[in-house]
Write a structure and sequence with these properties.
This protein is α+β, with helices and mostly antiparallel strands. The protein contains 2 helices and 3 strands; from the N terminus they run H-E-E-E-H. It is about 30% helix and about 20% strand.
């Protein structure tokens, strides 16, 4: 059975709080400006490591292609260390 996680209106407050916390952390780690965008979403995942859900972070900076970083965990389970590691391990120059 597939699970979908895209209805923000029906999003529970805990999920919204986690998303805001992770978004703020990404903005801090990458030192993003006001014109740069970040989204943090949870999607269904069939990979054995992720336990049915993974967290996807999209970083949208002016003048650059949108970059995606994934953490193979449900959003509520993502720690600061998990997120920092995912950003550092990104294949692009995401940290610069």
């Amino acid at each position: 059975m597939a699970r979908f996680f895209f209805n923000r209106r029906g999003q529970d407050p805990e999920t919204a709080d986690v998303s805001r916390r992770l978004t703020a952390l990404v903005r801090e780690v990458l030192q993003l400006g006001e014109d740069d965008g970040v989204t943090v979403s949870e999607i269904a995942c069939s990979h054995p490591e992720c336990g049915d859900a993974e967290t996807v972070v999209l970083i949208m900076r002016l003048g650059r292609k949108t970059e995606a970083v994934k953490v193979l965990k449900a959003m509520r389970l993502v720690t600061e260390d998990d997120l920092r590691r995912a950003l550092a391990d990104a294949p692009s120059d995401i940290l610069s």
